[in-house]
Structure formats: C-alpha cells, structure tokens
Amino acid sequence: MSLTLADARIATPEGVHDGWLTIEDGRITHVGHGPAPRTGHSLAGRLVVPGFVDIHNHGGAGGSFPTGEQDKARDAVALHERHGTTTMVASLVTGSVEDIASATSSLADLCDDGILAGIHFEGPYISKARCGAHDPKLLRRPDPGEFGELVKAGRGHVRMLTIAAELPGALDTIRTAAAEGVIAALGHSDATYEQTIAGIDAGARVATHLYNALPPLGHRTPGPIAALLEDERVTIELINDGVHVHPAMLRLAYTVAGPERTVLITDAMAATGMGDGTYVLGSMEVSVKNGVARLVEGGSIAGSTLTMDVAFRRAVQQVGLSLAEAVEVSSLTPARVLGLDDTIGSIAVGKAADLVVMNDSLEVAGVMRRGAWITEP
Ligand SMILES: [Zn+2]
Q1: How far apart are CA 87 and CA 91, in angstroms?
Q2: How far is the C-alpha of 273 from the C-alpha of 282, rounded, in Å?
Q3: Pairing relation of β-strands 27-33 and 41-42?
Q4: pLDDT tens track for 207-225
Q5: Which residues are catalytic?
Q6: Is 359 exposed, middle or buried (0-12, 13-18, 19+ CB in 10 A)?
Q7: By C-alpha distance, which of 55, 26, 93, 121 is closest to 311?
Q8: Its pTM surpasses 0.85
Q9: What CA–CA distances, in Å, run from 322 to 27, 29, 160, 338, 341?
C-alpha cells in the first residue's frame, strides 16, 4: 500500500522545499518538488522533518528506564514518540551491578522488538566529584571484565557507555567498549585536558551532555570541555532545555563543533510529560518544580523534562539555528553516532518513513514511525 503526502514543506539534507513524498512498506519511495502528481494526504503547507533520534533518555510518562520495567518503558517510548522521537536509546544510571544487569536484560527485549534502538550505561564508572544525580555510594572503579559481563546481559543491544577518563582502569575499559562495538562517551568527569585526550585516543567518541557534570572552561585549565570540543573525532551532546545550558554556551559549542558533530539530547527522566512532584532516578529521589528536576538531597539538576520537539524548536527560535541545521543535529547526526544513518535520520528515498509534521510555530501536528501514523495530522 502506498501513501502520498502532498502540499508539504520538506526538510532534506539539502534544505527546505515545497513538495511531496510517497511511502510504501514503511519506507520513503519518492521525494518530489512542487505539486504531487497524484492526489494524496494534503499537509496544507506544513513542514515535514525527519523523526528525531534521541541518544540519551532516561524515561518519561512516569516510567524510568533504569528500573527495567517493560510496561513503564513502553509508556515512556510512547510519550516521546508523540513528541516526534522515532528512535530512542534507553539510558540507565549508576546502580549496583546486579540492578544494571537485570534492567539491561529486560530492556534488551524491547530492543529485540524494535521499540528501543539500544541501551546506554551512564555510570557506574564516573567521577565522585562530578556525579550529579548519580548515587555516589554505588560508583565503581572501571573494570573491563565487569563491563564485558554487563554488555553480555544486553545481548548485543548495549550501544553506549559514559565513563570518566581519569579513573584507574578507564582507558582499558574504553578500549574494551570500542572492541565490543559500544560507543564510549566521556562525561561525569573531573579529567584534565590531557586525561581527556588520552580517553579520546583510547577510543571515546562522544561527549556526554557537554558542560553539565564537567569542570568549567578555564583559560589556563581548559579541562575536558576544550579537549572534547576541539577534537574532530568527538560528537557533542547538548541538553537544549534552557536550564542545563545557556543558549550562548550552546551557540559557542555549535560554532566549534558544527552540525556534523553536535547532537541534541533530552536526558529526559520519568517526570517528562507529567506534572511537578516527586520521582526517582535510579536510587535517588528527585523533586520536580516548574518542570525542573533536582535531587531532593543537595539540589543537583537530575535530568530534564525535555522532549525532542521542544529541543528542536528552541534550537531554531532561541539558539538561532536554521531549520536545516536543527534537523541535522536532532536527526541525522545522532543517527550517524548510532551507525544508523543509512536507514534513518533524513528524508530520503530508501530510508524509513519516520516523519514529524510541524505547524508554523514548530509544534508537532503529526508523527509517523516506520510508515504508520502515531498521530495523524
Ligand atoms: Zn543522563
């Protein structure tokens, strides 16, 4: 069965144009300019962008991936889907090795079903000095053997590890990750500039939420932020909720790294899509007020209540990116990080029909995943 979407403004890697597209068996089969050659579903001039790819997300709709509860995880995925995220990695937090392993093997089922695109270990091999919302009592010294066992629990679905490069054993663990096909990400780290470079040389390729849980830039102590920004091998994650990072600092990172090395993430937690109140993130109690999540104990920011449509909209309206640039950092570049850019991440013939329809104020009017409407515009 073939579906034509007509009267659209289509955002492709080349820019935005008026046109139409057809979808067959979940894939995009034509992308055309101007009026459609056949009648189809009119989008009345609305914008179509590729479905968002979120590589760092702890949950939503009351569900928290670190618990490993499958029904709750499905609720979280469904919430983010309604906000345009059609590919999502489930992020865990620091926990006991047993808890991480059991959540991982449970979430691996959802990866088998194509609901999740992988699992991200944020911790337990991170810095006590920069642990943010992670339980300092459960932090561990990086151990390649132990990490290898955790990867096994994921049956091939563990996609990313956030690790602090300065810890003893970290470089060997980064090498193990690279050998296992797991992306090593540097973050929650108190490393120096030089220690960070050593982590990148060992194989780390992503910066976990740049600026947050890292020592600040100093002109005599450049630290991890400068090392990560200037290295062409590293892709930079940014939480664009206006709380975690000031728009000026986001522009600074983007100016250095460019669209091919910048990805917007949500770092969303269970409260996303819910009201203010008390929630948990791993073993930590979190209080959400006016949409800002903070640890009850100590007040550290504890994830966000961001969705990718809001991150996208803010990128255009507050940060000043063009539509094409915003599309690149919220779809194509994160897809490339995951090695999935041949099948998702842009509106192109042969790719999955993962689409977000937006109105003029860049609010979501419809979402399609693998050719099926999640919400029909
Ligand atoms: Zn996180």
Answers
A1: 13
A2: 19
A3: unpaired
A4: 999 999 999 999 999 999 9
A5: 267
A6: middle
A7: 55
A8: yes
A9: 26, 26, 29, 24, 21
Instruction: For residue 108, report the distance from its CA to the centre of ligand 1, in Å.
Output: 19
Q: Which pair of tokens denotes residue 42? A: 């009119």
What is the largest distance, in Å, between two alpha-carbon atoms of the chain? 63
Q: Are 131 and 188 in contact (CB under 8 A)?
A: yes
Centre a 10 Å sphere on the Cβ of residue 157 and count the other Cβ atoms it contains.
Answer: 21
- Quote the ligand 1 centre to 329 CA distance (angstroms): 18
CB 84 within 8 A of CB 355: no
Residue 4 pLDDT > 80? yes
Distance CA 308, CA 311 (A): 5
Average pLDDT, the chain: 96
Q: Quick one: three-class SS letters along the chain?
A: CEEEEEEEEEEECCEEEEEEEEEECCEEEEEEECCCCCCCEECCCCEEEECEEEEEECEECCEEHHHCCHHHHHHHHHHHHHCCEEEEEEECCCCCHHHHHHHHHHHHHHHHCCCCCEEEEECCCCCHHHCCCCCHHHCCCCCHHHHHHHHHHCCCCEEEEEECCCCCCHHHHHHHHHHHCCEEEECCCCCCHHHHHHHHHHCCCEECCCCCCCCCCCCCCCHHHHHHHHCCCCEEEEECCCCCCCHHHHHHHHHHHCHHHEEEECCECCCCCCCCEEEEECCEEEEEECCEEEECCCCCECCECCCHHHHHHHHHHHHCCCHHHHHHHHHHHHHHHCCCCCCCCCCCCCCECCEEEECCCCCEEEEEECCEEEECC
Cα–Cα nearest to 347, from 13, 5, 2:
13
Instruction: For the chain, give the percent of residues with pLDDT over 70.
Output: 100
Ligand 1 mean position to 3 CA, how many Å?
A: 38
Cα(289) to ligand 1 centroid in Å equals 19
Q: Which residues surround ligand 1, an ion (CB under 5 A)?
A: 122, 267
